[in-house]
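TL;DR need structure tokens for one chain.
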Amino acid sequence: MQGDAATIAALFAVDPAGLGGVVLRAPACSAREDWLALLRALLPPKTPVRRVPLNTGDTALLGGLDLGATLQAGRPVALQGLLAQADGGVLLLAMAERMSANTAARFGTVLDTGALSLQRDGLDRRIPTRVGLVALDEGASDDEQVPASLSERLAFRWVLDRQDAEDEGLQWSAEEVQAARLRLAKVQITDESNEALCAAAMALGIDSARPCLFAARAARAAAALAGCDTVQEEHVAVAARLVLAPRATRLPDTPPEQTNDADQEQPQEPQAPEQPPPDQSPAQDASDSAKSTEDTPDLDTDAPGPQELAELVLAATQAAIPPGLLERLKSGAAQRGNSSSAGSAGAQQKHALRGRPVGARKGEPRAGQRINVLETLRAAAPWQQLRKRSVSAATAPRIIVHKEDFHVTRFRQLGQTTTVFVVDASGSAALNRLAEAKGAVELLLADCYVRRDSVAVLAFRGSSAEILLPPTRSLARAKRSLAGLPGGGGTPLAAAIDAAAGLAAQIRRKGETPLVVFLTDGKANISRDGRPGRGPAGADALAAAVKLRLDGVSALLVDTSPQPQESAQALASTMGAHYLALPYAGAQVLNQAVRALAGRP
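>> reply
TL;DR here they are.
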């Protein structure tokens, strides 16, 4: 759409704090700088615009204790952070796709509350902070995305290209934007417009209420730019196109096709004219009809009704869905949420001695823990003037540090990932499935040599499941364990899920992250007590799947049947696992699927 990039800049300049911000996906290029220059030109003069580099510390972002000024003054002196400095303005977040979840949560809290709660270094303050954010997303692939907790709180998502910078489209001046900012409080939006936006969001599979709220605010900003005091149809369409369309997770349901003209023109049996009641004459009937016609209000107006407005908004939104997203929606592969992944490494874990420094805590440096000198001095600085009164000036050290001032550094390290293959060794197709599992395990073990990951294999057949290969990184041991696995027999799927859950619990207790991969068609015929029967066996399998989902174990179910089975899809949905239909999956394809689930490149 020509001019949409400029429209987003103008709407955001009208109400930065109310709209939250913009996720601008573009590499560092002239087109992005031109858009940022346009935004600065539309903002009122002297509006603070601050750039936040990646990995900005808490002190620079939130503020804290000014150590030098505090030691000099002998009293706590606060240091203003970037968030407080940008009150009423805009923050530019560089490389937002690499932002940590903790930093995204801090920005989200400020956007939700409109204030910065500073409770650190002996300070307890609440600072008004109403800002708008421009998250500069420089990700090169779909896996690199702004954290969902932050992008959910920003109204606009836009992929900028060179054509957007060259398109003139609709342009506004800084004076027009300033007039719209003054008019915004008077702009009203009707209930019909809100209902149309909510209906469009539901049809597009948007299950959050924030996009509807942002769309309503964007419609009011568009009306203010147009000089209107009431939101019109075109303003609602603009807001839906720019706010709702990029968030679509499914295509709207297609209305049923109309019947053929031939069917509509089929002759109908003639009906006898309705006779008036016996006590009413035809003249009285005609008089009553004319009277009812006069009393009926004129419905032929230019304003569309609620249903028509909803259909117009939905049509405008669907037409603006990006082409790439539209193709993914049609194939059923649209991503629902931008969940950040830590890659092949496991979940982050706190550690006292090893890992990446993530701050400090109050405590004594015992058992090899490292003292944090800077935080210790921060804790001691506010008390220097009081402490020096209790000692003579001749013997007083320059800085008096007490035991309660000690702070130690906190560390966080990434745990290992252990991939557990749960292989269905029953039935006539067991040999093919085992061959694929062997090849996939060997391919993954080659990566484990560098990534320090582990692989385990659990096979189930007959009436039980057994751990064929405990977690290991030994390629030779994996080959020996898989070589002698027989096939055939029943399918004790419930026992296999229970055994996988138990193995995942053991892996977690060791501080590692489990990832379970099931290779099965989902057709259980052996129940937990070892008795045959598809009904009880299926119920037991679903019950075990529910327990696995409640345990929070990441899982992938690979449907190994010649055709995708509903039983496998239902099982995957119950256990909260990703479903993958690979009737003729080779080892390389299966390996790629597991790597994609684990977030590996």
